[in-house]
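Review form for a predicted model. The reviewer records the input and the model, then writes brief findings.
Reviewer: anonymous (R2)
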Amino acid sequence: MTTPIGDPTDYVVGLLLRRAHRRASRVFGQALLPLGIEPPHFGVLHTLARLGPMSQRGLIDQLGSDKSAMVRTVDELERLGYARRRPAQGDRRAYAVELTPGGRQALADGVTAAQAAAEEFLTDLDREERATLKSLLTRLLATPSP
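Model under review:
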């Protein structure tokens, strides 16, 4: 007996998004390789540049990371000289992570690499299609999850 699978267009969108994400991540990761950083590093650098110094907990919340991965990422950024931990204002037990000048330069180089990676990934889409894709994804992300 065969099980009816229904119309795949009703449920395959998640699979397509996952496959597109994996491909985009691979292209982005390859673009960052010459800079000696990885996508998680870029995410932290970008977040700190946008929002300013913050705790590792704040970074975890902003990036949807887990504690051990964030500790490892911040440790690596400190080792590279791109970020530093300083005592947080108003809480002697906490530390704020902040960008260094080297981190700002790494981010600028990373943005250039990200733009090249996006161009490579989206090469088959024209300007209007790219804008539509971005708009639709932004709307999907703005909708609260059940």
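Findings: DSSP finds six helices and three strands in the chain.
Further findings: Residues 101-121 form the longest helix (21 residues).
Recommendation: see findings above.
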